[in-house]
Amino acid sequence: MKKLFPSIASILLLWQISLPLVADTISLEAGKFDYYTLALSWQAAFCESKPQKPECQSQNEKRFDAYHFVLHGLWPNVKGDKDHSYGYCNVPKRIVNRRWCDMPRLDLSKEVRESLGKFMPGSLSCLQRHEWYKHGSCSGLSENDYFALSNQLVKMFSETDFSHYVAKNVGKYVKRKDLLKAFDKEFGKGSRAYLLLRCKKVRGTSLLTEIQIHLKKNLSALSDFGQLFPKEKLRVYGTCPRRFKIDEVGIVK
To answer: Out of 68, 130, 135, 214, which one is annotated catalytic?
Structure first.
């Protein structure tokens, strides 16, 4: 009797052979997202485990990043996508797999480049190229407009009372509930639903390394940071314990 269906092994082999062809043809459309995630790094904590990075070797207490959050990225996000897989919109595979500084240069104005030097220290390691091709390409904005918007958001956030609260506690331990309370106090009860805290333990000390803030998709009117949240509150979770440290410039001992 002849077999009417291929064997399971044959099906799996055909599926494996077809994977590269499918992957090469996937093309996500820019602008098809629901909200932004503004990822802001605490540079002193980042540099604890990356001291060889040029932005870490040049860090000092007089720089903006010693007392303010700095730009990691502005990520267009789709609801339910916790892994931020919506990215690389219409970006060739040959660019995706390159080292950051080997990616094509971006078309940025002098003003935007200079602002990135302040608000994104990682630009010394070509972080801006990685962020553009992975996330900015999906924003629907030009390269220059995307980073002009990102810079403006970092500047606005640096002027908030919440940012000042964190700066006053540099070198000290804070309670997670107090940090969330400070966010609610400034932006309204329940605003902590838009905030995610990330911490990392370094030589036995839990350090705040990054915060992620959910913002609405339409950010055309930038006047009050508290008005930039989406209407729908998103349940977010972080990795910070009940008590952690706001790291200062230098190595934790």
So the answer is: 135
What number of CA atoms fall less than 13 Å from residue 123's CA on the CB side? 21
Residue 48 corresponds to which tokens in the numbers above? Answer: 């604890």
pLDDT digits (tens, 9 = 90+) for 92-145: 999 998 999 999 999 999 999 999 999 999 999 999 999 999 999 999 999 999
Please tell me the predicted confidence (pLDDT) of residue 81: 85
Q: Which helix (H) or strand (E) holds 215?
A: strand 205-216
Active-site residue identified among 72, 143, 210, 214: 72
Helix ranges (DSSP H) in 75-138: 93-96, 110-119, 127-134
CA gap 71, 94 in Å, rounded:
26
Write down the domain spans for the chain.
29-245
Task: For residue 72, indicate whether it is catalytic.
Answer: yes
248 catalytic per annotation? no
> Which class in CATH covers the domain with range 29-245?
alpha beta
Three-class secondary structure assignment of 177-205: HHHHHHHHHHHCCCHHHHEEEEEEEECCE
pLDDT in tens, 28-63: 899 999 999 999 999 999 999 999 999 999 999 999
Mean of per-residue pLDDT scores for the chain: 89
* Catalytic annotation present for 84: no
